[in-house]
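Structure ticket #2291
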Amino acid sequence: MSRHTASRVHIVTLGCPKNEVDSEAIAEQLADSGYRLTNHPRRADYIIVNTCGFLEAARQEALETLRHLSATRRDGQRLIAVGCLAQRDGAALVRAVPGLDGVVGVRSWRHIPAVLDQIAAQSGRRRWSVVHLPEVGNPLDEDAPRRRDGRGPRASAYLKIADGCSAVCAFCAIPAIKGPAHSRPRDVLLQETRSLVDQGVRELILIGQDTSAYGRDRGERDGLPTLIRDILRVAPELRWLRLMYAYPPAGRDRGERLIEMIATEPRMCHYLDVPVQHGHPDTLRRMRRPDDVEALLRWLEALRAAVPDIALRTSLIVGYPGETESEFAGLLSFMQAARFDRVGVFRYSREPGTPAYDLPDQVPEEVKQARYERAMQHQQGISLERNQAQIGRHLEVLVEGCGDGISIARSYRDAPEVDGFVLLQGEHPPGDWLTVQVTGATPYDLIADCSPLRVDRP
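Resolution: structure written out below.
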């Protein structure tokens, strides 16, 4: 029997879905080492916080969480920070969070059991913080298995196909935190896919810092379309395969194979998340992003011609250094022309260590807020029109929850956590797949007939 059998670990996950996947890998590593996992923090001997360090707001949330847990933990309980903030701040995090017992970087998951061993070996008052920060360029634990915690919809799961990023966006700290893009081996991803499907997963969501770059670091020209084809081959039970975080095409790369696959493969969600960040060429140039806005609009038009019912999501930044009122007006005009179904608008966050940090003409916070509100209001009208166009359609939906006489579901047009819902009268079991008819719309959600045309149970 393992000497860790009596030690319990609770994992707190902050930030994006990529962190959720990492936390599942951490959980499996600890379970294999003999630790017991618990969903109850008060019962845990160790609390591990998987942090986000991408933006200032995320860093503050992580620091507040760590400080609260440090101040309220019971005697003998140990606190460890892992993930992006741990990698970014390193030993400085020990000074920022009194009583922090350990700091582990983003590519050290396999070392976490050893770090816990080092912490456990300390006794009495001679306690010190254990810091493990490998070089950012070290390979990630690309074949680490995952242990899902049993919470959340079991029919959906994320598959992280790569980590790090080789883009040079001036505002982004990810390359400094995680290093260049590193694709996970295809055979490992196919094994993980098969494992998730065997656990009942029927919606698989591909994620990474830039999913469209999958395979390029390995010299593969069509890495992502080939991976998608292989996933669908080994997992015939999948109903939806969804793609997030795809960098917009630039130069001679027009993404024809990916468009063809979305158009012709029935199990590919007619959905694409393409973060474009802005719609004015001058702003995009300062961001070090592709700046041919007209080419991007033509690509979106070609995408919709090939897949007429596709739902498109993007992310936009307002208040970037040097953004003039004219450039912001250009962004609004771009939004009107592009007519994305879903848009996430973010106020620019000035991140230390990024090229944009030192740019002149930083935009005042009150101007950022005003532009954020204007952009959100502008998009609400577009999103409402896009949703109203769904009225009368029959959609397949996945039920995610129910209560008080209604059910909350998602269609292919809705990614978990970031998009809206399909609202149904009546309570249907989570995990059911229904075919319903859309009867109403709001800017964010659809309303559907409470009498499903078909019910499929897992």
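Closing remark: The chain is about 35% helix and 20% strand.
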